[in-house]
Amino acid sequence: MRSFRYHVVSVCAVLLALGLGVALGASSLSSSMLGGVSSDRADLNGQVGSLTADRDAARAQQAQSDRALAAAAPGLLAGHLAARSVVLLAAPDAAPDDLDAVSGLVGQAGGHVTGRLGLTDATLAPDRADALRSLVTRVLPAGVQLPRTTDAGALTGALLGSLVTSGKGPTSSPAEVGTAFTALADGGFLAPGAAPAPAQVAVVVTGDGPASTPDAAGRASALAKIAGAVHSGGAGTVVASRAASGEVAAVRADPSLGGVSTVDGVGTTAGRIATVLAAGEQVQGRSGSYGTAPGAKALPGAGAAPAAGAPPA
Fold it and tell me: Where is this region: Disordered (predicted)?
């Protein structure tokens, strides 16, 4: 009869064999997996390198185009805003570089900027609409008519239009203008700053469009309604954005705002030139959609539509 010691040795031998088998199998599997991961990583690195090269080439081409257009801007813009005045309405996400560039190009076109009016996040926030609506009705200058609507954006645009544009409505006194601006700033609906002098054209400058949040569509619609109401007050109006989405898309999608010109790509020299040319067309009673989005023209020119309700030249 075999001894107990013999059985113990046998069991240990079996366990050792199993352990070696598992180790060898795992080693083989690990080598295979590591080889596959290394191959995938190399492929991804190659794709990243290719995309980076494409991006850098596109940026270089854009920079070259911007330099060429900047050199040509004085000739392209000369006389398009001769002796005309422009006020800039800055959305909360408007880039200072875009505002500065548009201001400079207005000067090259023969016009002058009367000032900048900074809108705040609260101006466009759906949850502040009731407070804004109430404030607008309280500070409305004598003789200014608000549209028959409860839309806070449209009411705000009508008020701002009466304050910063020389449209077809009554002229507010300096005291009324000062009271309205102070109340809107104190309420958090306007950025602090001097009130712009009235102008013939309003250019609304925005950034990349509202972020993907539940109230994004509401914010874009609010700014579109503000621009539409400013235009309805008799001032030429242009909405210029870095993106083709957001506010620009909201204006283009609303048939009632067809008289407002739109420009996507205001972060580029071409977009900034198009913005100023569009302002010049507004003075002449014409409007259009410009930029790189489908259906938009690269630059204002022949074939622009008459701007509904725009003031004559």
Answer: 284-313
